[in-house]
Design brief:
By secondary structure, the chain is an all-alpha fold. It has one domain. Helix content is about 80%, strand content about 0%. Helix 1 packs parallel to helix 12 (about 270-280) and helix 8 packs across helix 10 (about 230-255). The chain starts with a helix and ends with a helix.
């Protein structure tokens, strides 16, 4: 019989593959669409797929406590809103193959948060794995600095700050997710609460912009949608579906294994993104040996974390 921990790592790997597919699709979709439009499309598919599924699967007992609702809502604001926006901006400015290894620094923050707030134990092996992840991030920073067509000086560091901020939010997010799951809520219902909270905050922001008389870029993008090609819409849909699969698989992983295991395994997405960029983004991004080396460091680091 397969153990729960093995199943959990399997779900984490599935979430990593879906996260990588999302990154490639976002890179292609932002050629013709704004970040706000991409985020809005992802939220729309999240809501259309996950919320009805959660209602059908759990009705009438959703297994939610006030603490669980609050925990999942905070996780949504951190991971599905703030981290998502920062990650997508990083992809737009640096490219998927460079933003992803920086986003893969999430285990560095996740391990610290898991030790501080969940009482999880961190071994020397896991710390070594995290050190390799940090080294991979440094390599990406060097590669981004030397890449042709990339911003330089302060603009480069601002661009780098976005995926690093996404890593921070994604590292803290699982702590709140684990608190919600600890109250007995199923992963599917937890994802639904997370998405509703994040999408509501996203909608309220644009409502506030509209009431102030400001330009709402997402609405402008939707009006321009009639002139977009089917190819552009295809990548937005692909990013949305991939993100939904990532969320569902990641919550199933967190329900079975500690944060200090699930989050580092998710960082295997770096290898998938670099490989995908070499195939699908050859005209937009150049995958260098240094970047490939960073991806390899991520994989080794993830392996050490899982074994530790």
């Amino acid at each position: 019989m397969v153990s729960e921990s093995v199943v959990g790592v399997g779900f984490a790997l599935l979430s990593a593959l879906a996260f990588a597919a999302q990154g490639i699709a976002v890179r292609l979709g932002t050629k013709t669409r704004s970040i706000a439009a991409v985020v809005g499309a992802v939220f729309a598919v999240n809501l259309l797929v996950v919320v009805p599924a959660a209602v059908l699967a759990a009705y009438p007992d959703f297994g939610l406590t006030a603490r669980a609702v609050a925990a999942f809502a905070v996780a949504g604001l951190l991971g599905s809103l703030l981290a998502r926006v920062c990650y997508y901006v990083g992809i737009e400015r640096l490219g998927a193959s460079r933003a992803e290894p920086l986003r893969a620094l999430a285990p560095l923050f996740a391990l610290g948060a898991a030790v501080a707030f969940l009482g999880e134990f961190v071994t020397a092996t896991r710390l070594g794995g995290v050190a390799l992840l940090v080294g991979a991030g440094a390599l990406v920073g060097l590669d981004s600095r030397d890449a042709p067509g990339t911003a330089t000086g302060r603009a480069l560091w601002v661009a780098v700050a976005f995926p690093v901020a996404a890593a921070l939010f994604l590292g803290i997010d699982p702590v709140f997710t684990k608190l919600g799951l600890a109250d007995g809520t199923t992963p599917l219902v937890g994802v639904a609460v997370r998405i509703v909270a994040a999408a509501t905050a996203f909608g309220l922001y644009f409502l506030w912009r509209a009431l102030r008389g400001g330009r709402v870029p997402a609405l402008g993008a939707l009006r321009a949608g009639r002139r977009l090609s089917l190819g552009a819409e295809r990548w937005l849909l692909a990013a949305s579906v991939a993100n939904t699969v990532y969320l569902l698989a990641y919550y199933e992983a967190l329900a079975r294994v500690p944060v200090s295991v699930a989050t580092p395994v998710l960082s295997a997405s770096t290898l998938f993104v670099v490989a995908g960029a070499a195939v699908f983004l050859r005209g937009d991004e150049r995958v260098t040996l240094r970047l490939a080396g960073a991806a390899l460091l991520v994989v080794v680091g993830v392996t050490l974390v899982v074994r530790g």
